[in-house]
Amino acid sequence: MLKLFIGNKNYSSWSMRAWVLMRQFGIDFEEVMVRFDGFSPDSIFKKRIGEISPAGQVPVLVDADLAVWDTLAIAEYLAERFPEIPMWPRHPAHRARARSICAEMHGGFSALRSACPMNIEARLPEVGALAWRDRPAVRADVARIVSMWSELLREHQGPMLFGHFTIADAYYAPVVMRLMTYNLPVPPDISLYMARVAQLDGVRAWIDGALLERDFLDFEEPYRLGRG
Fold first, then answer.
1. Whole-structure pTM value
2. 40 near 46, Cβ under 8 Å?
3. Domain-by-domain residue ranges, the chain?
4. Which CATH number fits domain 92-209: 3.30.930.10, 1.20.1050.10, 3.40.50.620, 2.40.50.140?
5. Which pLDDT tens digits describe the chain residue by residue (228 residues)?
6. Is residue 183 a contact partner of residue 177, using CB atoms and an 8 Å limit?
7. How far, in Å, are 20, 48, 95, 203, 227 from residue 218 at the CA level?
8. Which one of 3.40.30.10, 3.40.50.300, 3.20.20.140, 1.20.1050.90 gives the CATH number of domain 2-85?
9. Do 7 and 34 meet the contact criterion of CB atoms below 8 Å apart?
């Protein structure tokens, strides 16, 4: 059976992408959660993940003797291993575009990711309001995301970015979580898309798991002293 090594569901946005992808498409796997206790070389987390992946980061997909790390590499591996499942859009042009926006997420939106770390359990509108007011780069990141999503939803007529659920929706699911946690302003069509993503079975299951953790990690939360 496939094994997927992940970090805390409340905080680990990259783990969420791979987990939701597999869960939503009904791919059977064993979840192995390695709790974040810090990211120094001598942390339990780094030692445990370092035994599996030289990158020392989550997620890591293990298939027999093969370890695949990096969320995009995991997505590509799964798409090849299960070709009967339409993880990418079937049309070549749409597939290329889906890969492009996933790569954009992979290497971009650093301002949003820095100012608004994923925290599913929390509701932090006041933190979001300050980031929106004081950080033009956050506003620019959100504007790009809104433009991208709106264009794709119009072109493919929803309910997901490419009509049906694909790797692209899994890739942007943690962005949906961030926009909700920090109550960042988005237009109505984007709010509706966010609501649909949040109600996907795979996303709902991840959220439920995150809420059950009740594991406050102060190094992941520079903006509050404890759970609300």
1. 0.95
2. yes
3. 2-85, 92-209
4. 1.20.1050.10
5. 999 999 999 999 999 999 999 999 999 999 999 999 888 999 999 999 999 999 999 999 999 999 999 999 999 999 999 999 999 999 999 999 999 999 999 999 999 999 999 999 999 999 999 999 999 999 999 999 999 999 999 999 989 999 999 999 999 999 999 999 999 999 999 999 999 999 999 999 999 999 999 888 887 788 887 776
6. no
7. 26, 21, 40, 25, 10
8. 3.40.30.10
9. yes
Query: Contact, 182 vs 128, CB < 8 A?
Result: yes
Helix (H, G, I), strand (E, B) or coil at 158: coil
Which phi and psi (to 5°) does residue 111 adopt?
-65, -45
